[in-house]
UniProtKB/TrEMBL annotation:
Keyword Transferase included in the entry's annotation: yes
Organism: Winogradskyella marina
Molecular function via GO: methyltransferase activity
UniProt keyword list: Methyltransferase, Transferase
InterPro entries listed in its UniProt record: Methyltransf_11 (IPR013216), SAM-dependent_MTases_sf (IPR029063)
Keyword field contains Methyltransferase: yes
Name of the protein in question: Methyltransferase domain-containing protein
Sequence ranges assigned to domain Methyltransferase type in this UniProt record: 129-178
Lineage: superkingdom: Bacteria
GO biological process, one term: methylation
One Pfam family cited in the UniProt record for this chain: Methyltransf_11
Length: 260
């Protein structure tokens, strides 16, 4: 059955796969139910997770229930264990104003149900976003949001400097953001080359045909140059080997946490 799932994930266009996933998730979750791996987002356990990836498949990474990947589960654990994102006491504090770019399917409904946050989603193309907006020209006032989530977005943006400046502008002083990106930590300098136009070649070099760069370790310094204080959080280093295995996380993945 895992082989069949791999064939399906490789052959069905991603937009259609996402639509089908709403129907397929309960079926997948039923057949893969077990006790080996756990998705911390919904607490459900399975004998295996599903493969996922463009070109180079990663095995045992896609949750059958929430369709979360390693980065989503790591972010959930960090927000739950290290911040008041889920637990903020609104009797003594005002609700957190949260801006979420390109909201992920595994988070959207769960975040909408939280009473301790005022939640706004935005995206240039997504029909499910609250506000249709260009990240390089946001329609929000200065100093508007306590928390900004912008994950696996900036690698799609040609002018990521302008996008970072806009993120800084709309974040409140004292606020924080999490700006995850696909990153090659072995690469000191970010690589981009607009002369590469072939889709297959771009997918091979950049990870996806619609990525415009491969970020290196200088990503953190670029955020600092915008004005953010940046913490390079290796949250897996605070977890046990058993937890990393149980939640199917990518050991050593860095969470870029920024502050204004």
């Amino acid at each position: 059955m895992k082989k069949l799932f791999k064939i399906i994930l490789n052959t069905i266009p991603r937009p259609l796969l996402i639509r089908l996933s709403y129907v397929a998730r309960p079926i997948l979750a039923f057949f893969l139910k077990g006790n080996t791996y756990t998705d911390p987002i919904d607490g459900k356990s399975f004998k295996t997770f599903l493969p996922y990836g463009y070109g180079n498949q990663r095995n045992n990474v896609l949750s059958p229930s929430t369709l979360s990947l390693e980065r989503h589960r790591l972010l959930w654990l960090y927000l739950n264990n290290e911040t008041d994102f889920f637990s903020r006491d609104t009797e003594s504090n005002s609700a957190l104003s949260v801006l979420h770019f390109a909201p992920e399917q595994c988070f959207l409904k769960r975040f909408r149900t939280l009473n301790n946050i005022n939640y706004t989603t935005t995206d240039l193309l997504s029909p499910i976003a609250d506000v249709k907006a260009d990240i390089c020209d946001l329609p929000f006032e200065d100093n508007s949001y306590d928390v900004i989530l912008c994950n696996h977005v900036l690698e799609h943006i040609p002018d990521d400097t302008k996008a970072m400046q806009e993120l800084y502008r709309v974040m409140k002083p004292g606020g924080y953001g999490i700006f995850q990106i696909p990153q090659d930590l072995n690469r000191e300098v970010t690589f981009e080359d607009d002369s590469i136009t072939d889709r297959d070649e771009r997918a091979k070099i950049f990870g996806q045909y619609d990525h415009v760069r491969v970020y290196g370790r200088d990503y953190f310094d670029k955020l600092r140059s915008i004005g953010f204080r940046v913490e390079e959080v290796d949250y897996t280093s605070q977890l046990s080997e058993d937890e990393i295995t149980k939640y199917c996380l990518a050991k050593g993945e860095i969470i870029p946490v920024v502050f204004k």
